[in-house]
Amino acid sequence: MNKLARVLVIFGAILIIILLIALFFGSRKIAQEIEKRLNQSMQNAKTQLEQSPHDNNYAIQNFDYTPFKCNGLMDYTCQSDSITMYAKDPTTRDNQTYNNIHLKNIVLSIRDIRNKNYLSFDIETAIDYPHIDKFFGDSKTGILVSFFNQNAEAILPNRVHCKQDFTYKDSLDLESNTLNVETVCDFESQVLTTQIKATNIFIPKIDKSHILGILYEIAMAMNEDINKKDLQAQNIPHELESLYVSLQSKQTFKDFLTQNTRLSDEQKQTLQTQLDANIVLMKSVGIRFLKSYIGQSGANIGQGISDFMQGNVKKLNIGLHLKTKNFQPFKNLYAMNIIEWLTYINKNYTIQSYSDNNETTHTHSTTKQ
Known about the structure:
Shape: globular
Number of strands: 13
Largest sheet: 13 strands, antiparallel
């Protein structure tokens, strides 16, 4: 290698090192900004809960968290040791709060941050329940609540993994660009695996060149920015395009009881009796109730749930797919009761249900007005 070649090689190596150092410190600055914004959002949410009325409509009353630490070069990962959520204790007269959900080892990953039209979030965490015996409410209120409380350890997930893909794209047939959100969540418990897939479409009234700008404005609006109420999630025109729920059994309830060494034979028999009673209730009341509002597909769903609970089938899938788009603020849907929701679903969605390898599809001819 001649002298000029050696000089070029050395110069090139030095240049690469300088670029890598610049990239590292630049990315570290971005990671620090993400860390700052994430922890600030967590603190804002905590403050909002603490300052809300005692009888607020939130599912939780308060939460504590370990601040996130973020790092990355092009893609970024943020980690927190724990988040503890507090809810009202339904078993006490004064509704005291208690820590009912504890998230451990939370890992949040952010991918494709360089893409102006696409962003991906991935979150994984372990879960435990410090007061699992009253998670579903006061057991004295009914046999169903009592049954779920006593089996909460088997039913509730001990690990959750969710992935959300955000795509911002031009819309030719709508008055504004759309934000598509595809969510896939896997929930692992002792007796079953549950997967939920959903596709939501939003029309935020904002024009930004990068998807991060869109999400940032929505986040600021959610933090009670009074000048951007139309960007709060409940006010953005929205449509649930599809929703799929898949239940897969790991073991039958009978097997779970057999392997449970903490329960006496009498307790096991009581729980089995309660399960049998709930299955009878589903068959005698639940199936007719669902059928009356969403037709034969409702009856099939009810029967599928009964078969799954009995262990007759190992896998149950339920799917909804939108027939015609008709965007409206999410708050209009949030205010619906169960009857209104079933009526809405029956009118606007194609409903599919199948267990194991037997598929049944029900399409209703009614269209939106």
